[in-house]
Amino acid sequence: MAGSGVTLLSHGIANKLKLKIIKGGWRVNEQLPNEQLLAEQLKVSRTTIREAVKILVSKNVLRIERGRGTFVVNTPGLADDPLGLEFVPEGTLLKHLCEYRLLLEPCASRLAAERATRTQLAEMGRIVAAMEALEEEYSAAGENDRDRVLDRFAGLDAKFHSLLYAMTQNTVFQRLSPIVNNTVIENYTTGLYRRREQKLRFHDTHQALFRAIQARDSGLAFRLAHGQMQTMRKELIRETSPIVSARKPGRISPAAPDRETGLPA
Questions:
Q1: Which of 46, 114, 134, 209 has a C-alpha 20 to 30 A away from that of 156?
Q2: Does the residue 260 lie in any domain?
Q3: How far apart are CA 78 and CA 93, in angstroms?
Q4: How many CB atoms lie under 10 A from the CB of residue 26?
Q5: Which helix (H) or strand (E) holds 160?
Q6: Residue 24 Ramachandran class (φ > 0 left, ψ -120 to 50 alpha, else beta)
Q7: Domain final residue, candidates 22, 40, 72
Q8: Rounded to an integer, what distance in angstroms lies between the CA atom of residue 25 and that of residue 91?
Q9: Is 78 helix (H, G, I), strand (E, B) or coil?
Q10: Phi/psi zone of residue 117: left (φ > 0), alpha (ψ -120 to 50 degrees), beta?
């Protein structure tokens, strides 16, 4: 029974610590007081504090750094893979995530055009410029160096979409962005691009979307994001179809532009 009492008490203390974080008592990446001080403040044993911290670590609210202390994580409560998507087969995951993004990302782009701050616009401009430089670097790179260029492009792509969702100034959109980045960006870029030995060619679409957001043209931003996701969806269907999958790897000629958006279809 004593064990049950300690467990119930530690959960209560964990809730108190979490509530203080929610109210801004400790900010993101801020260090909590040491175990002894917390025990004195909350009038419980160090064992109870230790158990409460373990609970919040398991919920991705706190992190423990050996030799330094306990800190609030960057995105409290958000696990790396909250939906367990890494256990979904790649082909199924990419198709379903494309459908998800087709519904969500155009709306996020429209809000970004309406709400992005000057600082965010400047940052997106730097990301797009870096993408353009990488595209040129990829063209000049030897076969052995192209994988490294693709890895860097994937990182920029992730930053672009994280910033796009942040521009919405909507907490839910911002919390959803890691789901997109940790799955689509990693799997699509390293998988689809490498299998097809495809030259980077999404810089133009990112630049066009950036310019629409910068111009505060929410309608155009919506249409461009929708067209880009339609393009990705069509390419995934072609890539994963039985006929294409059975062919030997090789370059695929560019598709004709989509009539509505002018983007590659």
A1: 114
A2: no
A3: 20
A4: 19
A5: helix 146-166
A6: left
A7: 72
A8: 44
A9: coil
A10: beta
**CB distance 229 to 177 below 8 Å:** no
| Residue type at position 126 | R
| Residue whose tokens read 């062919």 | 247
Burial degree of 218 (CB within 10 A; 0-12, 13-18, 19+)? middle
Range of the domain at 64: 2-72
Joined together, the tokens standing for residue 133 give: 């430089």
In b/e form, how buried is each residue of 59-98, taking b as 16+ CB within 10 angstroms? ebbbeeeeeeebbbbeebebeeeeeeeeeeeeeebbeebb
8 Å CB contact between 263 and 205: yes
Specify whether 92 is located in the same domain as 214: yes
Number of domains in the chain: 2
pLDDT tens for residues 33-67? Answer: 999 999 999 999 999 999 999 999 988 889 999 88
Token reading at 250: 């090789």
**Average pLDDT value for residue range 133-137:** 85
| Confidence category of residue 244, pLDDT binned at 50, 70, 90 | very low
Distance CA 61, CA 59 (A): 6
Q: What is the spatial distance between Cα 35 and Cα 127, in angstroms, rounded to a whole number?
A: 42
Residue type, 238: R
Q: Which amino acid is at 239?
A: E
**Final residue before a domain boundary, out of 38, 72, 106:** 72
